[in-house]
## 1
Amino acid sequence: MSHEYRDRVYIRKDILLKLTEFGELNQTNLLSYCGLNLMKHKDILESLERKGFIKRTEIPWGNKKVIKYSVTEKGRQLCKMVLEPYEEIFPRSEKSVQEQG
């Protein structure tokens, strides 16, 4: 797995796309699928939730709780109207630029 720097815009897009793809994911799976670290990227999840782009649900499981996330309609619209055009204008890598040209 590559350890290249990934702009926060792309991290947000990856989160929204994975949640759209799967409908709902527990925190561990979401972070794993997106290649994120909870300690390093928790602020991004909290920001997306606070702004209404994702929904966080806590489900009791014995004496613990499972945290699940899902994308909201507002999050789907953000991805479609802003993040997808952003990636089209500013592709993630030179490989993407070469494929388009």
## 2
Amino acid sequence: MIRHIVLTRFATETSEQTIADIYSGLARVAETLPGARNFVGGRSESPEQIERGYMHGFTIDFDGWDAVQAYADNEEHKALGGQIVANAQGGLDGVLVLDIET
């Protein structure tokens, strides 16, 4: 299994509704792609408070690297990813992506 992890430092003017809409779209993508499941996303509520501005994040689990590639190639995912970058502080500099094989 591959766990896809995305952390974002959204610009201060980005509304929680905008973020929720993006995450809802990504959840729909994960529901429709074979080998993708378990979308979880939201705002950090960590008591440690060491997010360093990365206050929002999401994860999606994939069966394997082929499923990750299918997600990366998906047009709806690309559009939603573009919205994340457009709303992130500093554009792509405000986004972290990790794919961890578990």
